[in-house]
Design brief:
By secondary structure, this protein is α+β, with helices and mostly antiparallel strands. The chain has 3 domains: 11-180, no CATH class; 181-440 and 483-498, no CATH class; 441-482, no CATH class. 43% of the residues lie in helices and 12% in strands. The chain is built from 18 helices and 11 strands. It has helices at 11-15, 38-44, 53-60, 129-144, 183-190, 195-209, 219-241, 291-305, 314-325, 328-344, 354-367, 372-383, 388-391, 397-415, 423-430, 441-454, 458-467, 486-491, and strands spanning 20-22, 32-36, 72-74, 78-80, 83-85, 93-100, 106-112, 151-163, 167-177, 243-244, 266-267. The protein has a 5-stranded antiparallel β-sheet with strand order 2-8-9-7-6. Strands 1-3 form a two-stranded antiparallel sheet. Strands 4-5 form a two-stranded antiparallel sheet. The protein is globular, with a radius of gyration of 23 Å.
Length: 498
């Protein structure tokens, strides 16, 4: 029995007993703690600082949990690559319970890779060490870029092999999320015509994530609007940092607006709208530039589940939901250009022509195969009087100099809206939104290979430390700023890890 006692709560089980199954993780004989996010634990008020690794390891492996902890696996459905999968659910995960932090924020604490559940559908319920460490790197990268995401609290090596294409070392990840309620959770009850539990889920989601909407005249429609806004902001933030989620199935879209599931994800290097890295996305459904369109499609599936909960005739309800969903592209574009203005250094004014200015800039990046992250970052160097890094990346310098002239004119108009801001000060503000480093794919793979194959965590820890300060240019981050060789990126693929 673990010496760790956490006063977890179980509001989800209490509200939706038909939407989950209590289930114990598999026993692990020799668990070994290889990662613990101590700052996150402290931030949440989890009293782990004085607990030694030998005690933490079995707890985060799910071994000998206190009787007060009642792990459960959630049921859900989902559209996978556009096709409905009627029965999915947590096939290799359990939620240990819900933790309330000092601000009364509720967090799911979940184990991933903890063994088979009734939802495993033939899978082994396990996870390999590399993909779990990958989730740490990518979730921390997004978090420190200011993007809504689930967090990684701990990784335990199981010291048991996992069979994939080859035998790999096994691991269990501890993940935190504001909740694991997905569009697919709503689809689970909607596809079964279970309106009673569908309403219970909607009311629970309102209470947990959008309590301010519960008293509105049409609270479920208001919730749809709020979810749309969060997802518009999320996808815009992905696009503006060059992130590809890779598997935007409806069971991977959380109503909390957090990024979840980091198996096939990646960052682009050269700006390429059609970029795809996921090995299972053979037709580019979830390509980089397709992500807003796919989120719109996913939200339409969510809207369909709410149909039985609205008042009025079916035709009227369909019209209202359709009108609401059709506002998503505008919501997304507003979020996108808002972020792009900041990346361009336009902090004080908005003009209709800003969208065209960004489009012309991105066309330059695409035509010249420029590195997305470096190109944005180098704009601040231009303001400091050094345009060489940008000019060296273009085939026709005149095209860039023409665009830079238009950009400078726009900056002058922006400056007229503020009392005083030097070019150096504006460059500094831009460097707070344009990262110096991202989780570059070759660096991630090198770190994971060293940890998984050689039990060497030096590169993993160094990369993680750098990703936790992505906007800083210093001795910690510089080794991770170099793009991968083009031949690496051309053949690079990501995998879901199951």
């Amino acid at each position: 029995m673990s010496d760790i006692t956490l006063p977890l709560q179980y509001s989800y089980i209490e509200a939706l007993p038909e939407g989950c199954i209590e289930w114990q993780p598999d026993a692990i004989t020799t668990p070994e703690l290889v990662y613990l996010n101590r700052p996150l634990a402290k931030q949440l008020g989890l009293e782990l600082a004085s607990v030694d690794d030998n005690t933490l390891a079995p707890f985060f492996a799910g071994n000998g949990l206190p009787e007060t902890i009642k792990p459960f696996a959630q049921a859900y459905t989902g559209h996978q690559f556009g096709h409905l999968a009627p029965m999915l659910g947590d096939g290799r995960a359990v939620i240990l319970g819900e933790w309330l932090d000092s601000n009364e924020n509720r967090w799911d604490i979940a184990l991933k890779g903890s063994g088979r559940t009734p939802f495993s559908r033939g899978g082994d319920g396990k996870a390999a060490l590399g993909p779990m460490l990958r989730e740490v790197l990518l979730s921390e990268a997004l978090y420190h870029l200011g993007i809504a995401t689930t967090r990684s609290l701990a990784v335990v090596a199981t010291n048991e092999p996992v069979q994939r294409q080859q035998l790999l070392p096994g691991a269990i990840l501890t993940r935190l999320a504001a909740s694991h309620i997905r569009i697919g959770t709503f689809e689970y009850f909607a596809t079964r015509n279970d309106v009673t539990n569908l309403k219970a889920l909607a009311d629970y989601t309102l209470n947990r994530h959008y309590p301010e909407l519960a008293q509105q005249q049409s609270p479920y429609l208001a919730m749809l609007e709020a979810v749309m806004q969060k997802q518009a902001r999320l996808v815009a933030s992905w696009i503006n940092c060059g992130f590809i989620h890779g598997v935007m199935n409806t069971d991977n879209i959380l109503l909390s607006g957090e990024t979840v599931d980091f198996g096939p994800c990646a960052f682009i290097e050269q700006y390429k709208p059609g970029a795809v890295f996921s090995s299972i996305d053979q037709h580019g459904r979830y390509a980089y530039a397709n992500q807003p369109k796919i989120m719109h499609w996913n939200l339409a599936r969510f809207a369909e589940t709410l149909l039985p909960l609205l008042d009025g005739e079916d035709s009227q309800k369909v019209e209202v939901l359709t009108d609401t969903i059709n506002r998503f592209p505008d919501r997304y574009r507003q979020q996108l250009i808002s972020g792009q203005r900041q990346k361009l250094g336009l902090f004080f004014s908005e003009e209709d022509g800003d969208t065209e200015l960004v489009s012309q800039w991105l066309d330059l990046l695409h035509q010249n195969k420029m590195d997305f992250t470096q190109a944005w970052r180098n704009l601040s160097r231009v303001l400091r009087g050094d345009d060489t890094p940008l000019l060296e990346q273009v085939k026709e310098p005149s095209q860039l100099t023409d665009w830079l002239a238009r950009w400078h004119q726009r900056l002058e108009r922006d400056a007229s809206h503020t009392s005083s801001l030097t070019d150096s000060q504006r460059a500094e503000k831009m460097e707070q939104v344009n990262p110096f480093i991202i989780a570059r794919n070759h660096q991630v793979e090198a770190a994971l290979t060293a940890a998984s194959d050689n039990n060497d965590y030096h590169l993993f820890n160094d990369l993680l430390s750098a990703l936790q300060q992505p906007f800083a240019e210093n001795e910690t981050t510089r080794p991770f700023a170099t793009p991968a060789p083009e031949e690496f990126t051309e053949r690079y693929q990501t995998f879901c890890g199951t």
